[in-house]
Design brief:
The protein is α+β, with helices and mostly antiparallel strands and about 300 residues long. It has helices at about 60-70, 85-100, 110-115, 125-135, 145-150, 155-165, 190-195, 235-250, 260-275, 285-299, and strands at about 15-20, 25-30, 35, 50-55, 140, 165-170, 175-185, 200-205, 205-210, 220, 230. Helix 1 packs antiparallel against helix 2, helix 4 packs across helix 8 (about 235-250) and helix 8 (about 235-250) runs antiparallel to helix 9. The longest helix has 16 residues, at about 235-250.
Length: about 300
């Protein structure tokens, strides 16, 4: 692909050295830097296509690939009970020691690879379904019929999870499953934020665990306070609840008293890895309250 030179991203022409899933790896003939050229979208041949910096030279890429591949090839369910965030951070530091320029730009190849490694799946995967069933116990899961979902107008990934996995019948203090029920909010401001309202899934204490019908985010909804954010979607909520309950107490109800503060601190980081929005809001979130209670038990 000599002569292909998107303006302002590299010094010379690019020479193709490899192909992966229709994308091209190419070397800059002037700087020897390696670049990743994404495939051109159909029908948009005249548009500029994404070109991402990979490494300062080809040898650095091969070293980074050998170091990163074993960890990045692992599926999310293979990390349960392990320090995933610690391992990925250690790996990132190792790659930076190989080629410091690889992480200078957050939109370059390796930062995007690491971001995708922690991204939530687009739909329920068989591995997730099996993991949730193993974690919560099939007898402790309440599933919902298509008719129940249709009655509350819930569809998409949340609906697929509720029919295939369901919700824990009794997993205090995280959730107790209940009947699906349409909920509306009082006040113009809250209605503007959640125009289609919520579907109640169950309870935590006296508050309702509910899913926003428009965004599919999970919220804690109490009549006396503003809604409290829980997770980006139901898959993330079940993943967090599974991981925390399984590591702390094997899924049995009630808070344990962990043997070390480092365990609670590690779990907090791992919940943030499962869903980065679990602690990302300025206001109090469901998981920030959960971990405050855990930290109190430790103290």
């Amino acid at each position: 692909m000599r002569g292909s030179r998107p303006a302002g991203v590299h010094k010379g022409s690019l020479v193709r050295v490899g192909v992966c899933n229709e994308a091209i790896f190419a070397v800059d003939v002037v700087s020897d830097a390696l670049w990743y050229v994404a495939p051109e979208p159909p029908g948009r041949r005249r548009r500029r296509v994404p070109v991402r910096f990979v490494n300062s030279h080809l040898d650095a890429y091969l070293q980074c690939l050998c170091a990163a591949r074993p960890a990045l090839d692992r599926q999310p369910d293979e990390w349960v009970g392990e320090d995933r965030i610690g391992e990925l951070e250690r790996l990132r530091q190792e790659l930076e020691s190989i080629d410091r320029g690889a992480f200078t730009d957050p939109d370059s190849y390796w930062p995007v690879i690491f971001s995708n490694a922690t991204a939530l799946p687009a739909k329920p995967r068989p591995a997730d379904v099996n993991r949730f069933i193993q974690c919560f116990g099939r007898d402790n899961l309440r599933t919902y019929s298509d008719a129940a979902l249709e009655a509350v107008g819930l569809s998409g990934r949340a609906a697929a999870l509720l029919t295939s996995v369901g919700l824990p019948r009794d997993l205090e203090p995280y959730i107790i499953a209940g009947d699906l029920h349409l909920m509306t909010l009082d006040g113009l401001a809250l209605q503007a934020l959640h125009p289609e309202g919520f579907v109640r899934l169950g309870w935590r204490g006296e508050a309702n665990v509910a899913v926003d019908k428009r965004t599919h985010e999970v919220w804690l909804v109490d009549a006396d306070t503003e809604p409290c954010f829980v997770n980006s979607d139901l898959n993330a909520f079940l993943s967090c609840a599974c991981h925390v309950s399984w590591v702390l107490d094997g899924g049995t109800p009630g808070f344990p008293i962990p043997g070390a503060r480092t365990l609670v601190a590690r779990l907090r980081k791992e919940v943030g890895m499962i869903d980065e929005r679990a602690f990302a809001r300025d206001n109090v979130t469901y998981w920030s309250v959960i971990f405050e209670e855990l930290e109190y038990e430790v103290a």
